[in-house]
Design a protein that fits this description.
Layout: E1 3-6, E2 13-16, E3 33-34, H1 39-44, H2 47-67
Antiparallel strand pairs: 1-2, 1-3
Length: 68
């Protein structure tokens, strides 16, 4: 099963098949978070839709991190 992970710092999305602990290659030592986005939907999205998803995800989760 292919899963998607997203970096909480930069929004980069990574696909993995076996790992459950994933680090962002762009941010170095940042633990990525599993995304609720389905892989099938992800591959059907355009590049712009993927960027919009990442930006929206960061916006939503940025608010929750700042409140803590």
């Amino acid at each position: 099963m292919i899963r998607l992970f997203i970096c909480p710092k930069c929004g980069w999305i990574r696909t993995v098949s076996r790992k459950s602990m994933v680090e962002c290659f762009k941010c170095t030592d940042v633990q990525m978070i599993p995304s609720k986005l389905d892989y099938t939907r992800f591959v059907q999205m355009s590049v712009q839709e993927r960027q919009d998803y990442a930006e929206s995800w960061l916006y939503i989760h940025r608010d929750s991190r700042e409140m803590k």
